[in-house]
Amino acid sequence: MTTHYVATVPVKFTDAEGGVRTRFQRVGAMFRNTRTGDGTEFFSLKLDFPVAVQELVMFPPSSKEPQD
């Protein structure tokens, strides 16, 4: 089981032949976690650069939230 993913942003550039290509710049990593107690799974996103926050934690939507 994968316990982490590399977080990237796409960056477009022009190569030596004049073609437009995309490279993916690493900006952080996302980790799969399990909450102690009830075993609920959640994810933590750790960013490599300073922003207003340096970690975002994502949880699955609760049953109270509307589903798309």
> Over the alpha carbons, how many angstroms does the gyration radius reach?
17 Å
Q: Any idea what the shape is?
A: elongated
Computed structural class: mainly beta
Number of strands: 4
Spatial separation of the terminal alpha carbons = 27 Å
Tally the helices. Answer: 0
Low-confidence stretches: none
Q: Please list the strands of the largest sheet in the order they lie side by side.
A: 1-2-3-4
One letter per element, helices H and strands E, the order comes to: EEEE
Helix content: under 10%
Average pLDDT taken over every residue: 81
Tell me the strand percentage band. over 45%
From the structure provided, what is the oligomeric state, counting identical versus distinct chains? single chain
Q: How does the major sheet shape up?
A: 4 strands, antiparallel
